[in-house]
Amino acid sequence: MGVNDILAAGCIVGTVVNFACIEGAFLQISLNLPVILQTITDAAAPGTPIVGVNYYNTFLAFWLTGSDGKVLAMQSAALANMLNNDVLGLIYGAFGIDVADVATAFQSNDFTTMVPFPPPHVSVPLNVALICRLTWMCAAAPIGPNVHANPDGYAVIAATIADILP
Fold this sequence. Notes:
Mean pLDDT: 94
Distance between the termini: 25 Å
Radius of gyration: 16 Å
């Protein structure tokens, strides 16, 4: 759900975003997620906590590939915010489901804070450094690049979920 829908649809090829494709992927998520949530809420025992999760922005790693990559990173931030707020947030809200704000935990929108980064880069935005530290996106093959969190990233995600559980 989410990034996998966008990747499977081929909405981003290299550093080019197909915005019509993104809209279609968001529509598909908007159709599928309510069905999934209804199934879960129907099956859960009364009082079972159900937590939604929003997404960190894996495409921030493209910042490291040059000027086209920086454009993609900036575009992807706007798209990730749309996914998290306008798609997922609205659907989770309609079901009364609390959302673990993984995007904020990964500082996905912080292009302002610059931090040291290994050569050939002198410094990069905090969100780019964190996506490299918390996922496999900046790892060399055969491990990376991979959109999934690494153990450190999953620890951040788990802590973010734990923070909102009763």
